[in-house]
Amino acid sequence: MPSAGTQVPVVDIAPFRAALGTLRSQRQGADRGGACAALPEDARRVAQQWREAFSTYGFCQVTGHGVPDDAIEAAYGAARRFFSLPAEGKLRCDLGKGYGFGGFTAQGKERVSATASEQPDGQVLGSEAARPPDRVESMVVYGTEEDLVPSGVEGYKDAVHGYHDGMKQLLKVVMALTACSLDLDFDYFEPFYASKTAEGSLRLAYYPAFEEGQEPLPKQLRYGEHTDYTGFTLLWQDHNVAGLQTATDLRPPQGGLQVRMPDGSFVDCPPMPGAFTVNAGDLIQVWTNDVFLSNVHRVVNPPPGDRNDRISMVFFTGPAADTVVEALPTCVGPRQPAKYAPVTAGEHLQKKLFASNK
Ligand SMILES: O=C(O)CCC(=O)C(=O)O
Ligand SMILES: [Fe+2]
Description:
With about 350 residues, the chain is of the alpha+beta class. The protein has a single domain (about 10-355), classed as Jelly Rolls (Sandwich). Helix content is about 25%, strand content about 20%. It is built from eight helices and 14 strands. The longest helix is centred in the middle third of the chain and has 26 residues, at about 155-180. The chain starts with 9 loop residues before the first strand and ends with a helix. This is Fe2OG dioxygenase domain-containing protein. GO terms for molecular function: metal ion binding; oxidoreductase activity.
């Protein structure tokens, strides 16, 4: 049996990224259709690996993504400086609306496990859903001029907006790859993601260290069991133990992400050098009629005595709020009936956020 942590597959998307430019230039003026079939062998193999990863795990580690290290470092540094502010400095960015509506959310407000009973397949996670609030602080960034900019955090705005732009670029590749892996035209999803109401929010997450004598509440986790609510999530996991404080040194803290395996067990999904962890959210599962899974995951506490904190940069994506998400044409057929009622993207997200802030 492979050791824990090796089970979320790795996909190097570089060959697909290289081919995508050619596809785009061919598309201009060319007849529609068949664009993905024209991909070179190595890029088609990436699309196949992508489909396998999301069908089995709903997760993969993405290398060859093209996001520059310095953009990651800059955002990570800004996040660390923000979360190191005294509480008053952070609370000045709290809009008082709870998690998911911009700005800062302090510990004790969000209880993500309360959303888990509303998975698209109706499955309930039982007593796990009754966990106390998560041991996390969050700062949400939309990449617009409306974003709250904390005072006293040098370079914050440029760094987080630069990172947000980088994530939008990567998302374009992710959606083209998804389209090709589902036998759709590479630009199939573009209209859904072009709108201002498309989901594209960056959650900077801070999981404080457990200092001497501090214990979690009974059953409390850093972030409880849940599925992500919308499209793909592009996650940069902390590569560090506290003290190193750069984004890319690989000394993964213990007490991180775990992903549910097909047999129901949870395995560690530690950061890997230079990789983004990518997972599919509920709307992708509905869109693909279960071809891609929106899989359950959580962030566990570090072992007793481990004094490390943890920072994640979590980019949530999804189609425009008014998109009615229903089974894609290549994911239904006489022997593959649609399993879900159509869902409106914005309504689904609001329902989940409401449940998480109870
Ligand atoms: O911090 C992490 O590694 C994962 C966070 C997560 O699952 C989420 O924000 O939805
Ligand atoms: Fe998540």
